[in-house]
UniProtKB/TrEMBL annotation:
GO terms for biological process: L-methionine salvage from methylthioadenosine. Its cofactor is Fe(2+); Ni(2+). GO terms for molecular function: acireductone dioxygenase [iron(II)-requiring] activity; metal ion binding. The lineage of its organism: Eukaryota, Metazoa, Chordata, Craniata, Vertebrata. This is acireductone dioxygenase (Fe(2+)-requiring). It is found in: Cell membrane; Nucleus. InterPro entries: ARD, ARD_euk, RmlC-like_jellyroll, RmlC_Cupin_sf. It comes from Notiomystis cincta. The gene is Adi1.
């Protein structure tokens, strides 16, 4: 994807159409740009899940998403300018900045955004059960 021209990038436009990402905003995570920066960074790094997919398109900067594998071990995913990542609903994850301490990302949603994070343990939610079923099916 062309992060420098995201407003007119035809590839991004097609992804948004195909996946029905009807809502978007842009968030900058930096101590001078994000209100309550220290508190937010700690919140992002708490292991949690969402009931909807988490879609992020990195416009500037870089960071890490940590996700759990099928054996409940951490996998670190580095994201940088031009990367798009989709974390499925129900997956435990966390986010942190790297040594640059800066990322600007587009947040995309199908429909209205829901920001609620459920810290672990949150295994009772249908989204978590669906995700675990998906992992079990993929293992066979």
């Amino acid at each position: 994807l062309d992060a420098d021209n995201y407003e007119t990038d035809p590839c991004l436009k097609e992804i948004r159409r195909a996946e029905n990402y009807s809502w978007m905003d842009i968030v900058t995570i930096h101590k001078d740009k994000l209100p309550n920066y220290e508190e937010k960074i700690k919140t992002f790094y708490e292991e949690h899940l969402h009931l909807d997919d988490e879609i992020r398109y990195i416009l500037e900067g870089s960071g890490y998403f940590d996700v759990r594998d099928k054996d409940d071990k951490w996998i670190r995913i580095s994201v940088e300018k031009g990367d798009m990542i989709t974390l499925p609903a129900g997956i435990y994850h966390r986010f942190t900045l790297d040594e640059n301490n800066y990322v600007k990302a587009m947040r995309l949603f199908v429909g209205e955004p829901v920001w609620t994070a459920y810290n672990r343990p949150a295994d009772e939610f249908p989204a978590r059960k669906h995700y675990m079923k998906f992992l079990a099916e993929e293992a066979h």
